[in-house]
Fold this protein.
Amino acid sequence: MKEVTRRVPEDEPPPLPENAKLKSIGKPVSRLDGVEKVTGRARYTFDVQLPGMLWGKWIVSPLPHARIKSIDTSAVERAPGVRAVHVLERMLSAAQLRDPKAEKNNRYLTVRYAGQPIAAIAADTPRAAEAAAKLLKVEYEPLPHVTGIEEAMRENAPLVFPGPTEQPATAGGGGAPPGLPQKGNVRGPDTKPRGVGPRGDVAQGFRESDVVVEAEYRTQVQTHVPMETHGIVADWRDEGLTLYASTQYIGSIRDEAAEYFDLPKNKIRVISEFTGGGFGAKYGIGNFGLLAIHLSRKARAPVRMMLDRRDEHISGGNRPNSIQRLKLGARRDGTLVALQVQAYGSGGVAGGAGVGFAHSTLYSCPNVHVEQYDVFTNTGPCAAFRAPGQAQGMFALEQAMDELAEKLAMDPLALRAKLDVSGTDDSLARAHERRVGAERFGWNKRRPAGTDKGPIKRGIGVSQSQWLYLVHRNTACEVRVMGDGSVEAFSGAQDIGTGTRTILAQVVAEEFGLRAEEIGSHIGDSHYPAGPPSGGSRVSSSLTPAARNAAWRCARDLASRLAPVLDANAEDIVFAGGKVMVKGKNSLALPFREAVKKARIQEISHRAERRDDYEGYAAAGAEVNISRHGIGGVQFAEVEVDTETGIVKVVRVVAVHDCGRPINPKLTESQIFGGVIQGVSYALYEERHLDAASGHQLNTNVDQYKIVGSREVPNIQVILLEQLGAQSSTDARGIAEPANVATAAAVANAFYNATGKRIRTLPMTPANVLAALRA
């Protein structure tokens, strides 16, 4: 514990004490919308039904690579019940040719993966739409294709794009670094992931090393599989466009609709009452959104366009695969002196398949060189996926650290303690988390690798986690107190299942001395003050300071109006326990609502925007600011490995994490549970399977795409660190990303401890496990 000095703007509230001294913030309040969700009253985009609504159906290419010579829509247009047809003329979510002239002029978009949308129709009923979709006549000129990353890297491989490409970043953190060279299907290298460039002389560092670890690691393609698929209901009217969207950022939906349809933003309203998950893939309008709006405009009726589960797997995004060649050099005392990475990843027809930034930022090392390459294949596009690149990169880096520790005869935790010394908040937090986690997990009982007897072997492992502390600068909140004493908060944020409504209400309730349940918490509408994206672990860090500042100003305004009523100075009026009180005069306490009525106000409203962190930032962008501090954690895993069948079971995980001030420990723990479970699923089960000959994905439904089941979920213990860095009026940060980053690496290190064999390929299927055991 130490004191720091910060300059706080005059119109912001004083610092909060630790959570134990607060009444609403930091308390495990149940989700305010929990009953709506479990009773089915919550309206997701999938549930939206509008008068006269039509059913959209998109038509996709059966070929993985082709030119389209002609499209005949006449039979579709004549089909019963069909109200509109539209051929897609713009492809989103994929890389684009730097020079469009590099491709032979064609009236239609080039097909680059099997399942790529071509056109869509809107019909009176789903059945009519399905029937009409079969009538579209498309004449293709097939082109050579390639679906495997290694095949695509070969010099004579079929070209996915005939020239260099670009893919701008989106609000979700996707996209690829601009201006990189491209040879064939290989684009790169990016030597400055997240803007952190190479340093020192790696070759010299390895010459000075006493110990060198070098290995290749591979990770697979994982699809997002949210509970609710991507989708939009578009309602185009003369007075404006209304979009009901399953999205992580209604702002990006509005902005892209305005750009692509040349509409002023004030003529577009985006509503997202509830979103059934996203994990990074639900940013922007998407090709389905473009088609739905076109169809609605043509049909003059609302159009519902929801992806089915097959389309979701193919086109909804995925976490790219990777081939990582990692080399570490260290002195005998554990000092890391050289780190080199060469990574190739394929996001299909999209760029941005890097392996994160931990190599340059997590551990102290004077000589670092990182090269990350995109490899294009004729497969569906990747999208941001819960800490883009970082989970893949950590799988390799944290195993290599364990290998280095073993060569140095050091405890893996001791080596990390020696090297994780940046002095940032997250680094200091991890030092504490390693100690706390080791004690809770029983790390001192760890046995030498491969010494467990019998065919089923147990082992334990550890991995660290790291992610960015991000702040979305264009975030605002409005708080109102009505004349009857009701209090409401408004933000254009959306909730993808993390509990945004609840934490918004908790922060506002704290300033008024009320319970969170007494606050009207309104989100999910672009007519409200701009909210942050629900991604990158930035909602709590961006929204809660704006909400507290608005609530504090509103409460102080209310106090000034109550002062004459209570014959007191405004600064002596406090709100606590559902009452309005005057300091030192408890006998004057009034119930909150009664006091507000006595003030005879119609409405008080205050709005606040998210100010910069008091300490400033390491990097400031147009929308996102990056702190020099981060967020992270340490996860410990225990596994059982059946060396005869190759089946791995994760028995137990202890996850120790920091996220600044936990606004709601119950919801924070819930996110960590989800991150760990998804991490176990990534480590053991999930994998996209493709047929190389046809380019088709073979496991496009949840009965074929294996995800962790309830009986396969380990015992998970969560320990939260309350960390007050005096950065904002709430000191809240995020948790979703780091909760998922460490799990696969911790499981892999536990696998080695159990068996004495390294598994460097994900997922840990029986085939991969038995191959690793035989190596």
In short: The mean pLDDT is 96.
